[in-house]
Amino acid sequence: MNELTHLDTRGQAQMVDVGAKADTRRSATAEAYVTLLPQTLDLIASGGHKKGDVFAVARIAGIQAAKKCADLIPLCHPLLLTAINVELTAQPEHNRVRIEATCKLKGQTGVEMEALTAASVAALTLYDMCKAVDRGMVVNGLRLLQKHGGKSGDWSAEAQP
Predict the structure, then answer these.
(1) Is residue 160 in a domain?
(2) DSSP characters for the chain?
(3) CATH of the domain at 116
(4) Is residue 158 in a domain?
(5) Structural domain harbouring 69
(6) Cα(68)–Cα(54) distance, rounded to whole angstroms?
(7) What positions does UniProt annotate as the active site of this protein (predicted)?
(8) How far apart are CA 32 and CA 119, in angstroms?
(9) Number of domains comprising the chain
């Protein structure tokens, strides 16, 4: 396990200086789930929701959130992302929507927080848009699936059952 590096010599929190690190291509992918009633999922999939295309709005919200990650997460570096992809997939066999967010850049630090933020905000947006018809929705399963590049190299999460 890597040593925590967000502390200065006095033990105070600081943003890590990545200025001496080389630019490398980096990417990260995260996922989250929203479990909902079957009729809520049908409403979204049919396009019959009064608020419009729920998936499109949640996708845009996730993209915007990734771009604003440094404004939301203390000590997170502001990054010039080169690509953000947020996909929402209905999984009616599980009464849920799966959200997968991938962020990429060529830079000095990773994009794990941006991918996690994108997935979580997309999930919360879906919840917000559907809460009037399904207050019992559950947002869960937020996790990093993989990261590529950087000093620590590649990493992938173990598959869940």
Answers:
(1) no
(2) -PPP--B-TTS-B-----TTSPPEEEEEEEEEEEE--HHHHHHHHHT--TT--HHHHHHHHHHHHHHTHHHHSTTPPP---SEEEEEEEEEGGGTEEEEEEEEEEEESS--HHHHHHHHHHHHHHHHHHHTTT-TT-EEEEEEEEEEE-STT--EEPPPP-
(3) 3.30.70.640
(4) no
(5) 34-145
(6) 21
(7) 128
(8) 6
(9) 1
Question: Stretch 68-72: mean pLDDT, rounded?
Answer: 93
Segment 87-145, tens digit of pLDDT: 999 999 999 999 999 999 998 787 999 999 999 999 999 999 999 999 999 999 999 99
67, part of any domain? yes
Residues within the annotated binding site for substrate?
75-77, 113-114
pLDDT digits (tens, 9 = 90+) for 76-94: 888 889 999 999 999 999 9
In a domain, 137, yes or no: yes
Q: Pick from 74, 58, 65, 80: which is nearest to 139 by CA? A: 58
Q: Which two tokens stand for residue 12?
A: 């105070």
Amino acid present at 159:
A
Q: Which residues are catalytic?
A: 128
Alpha-carbon 116 to chain mean position = 3
Q: At 106, which amino acid appears? A: K
Pairing verdict, β 83-91 and 24-35 = unpaired
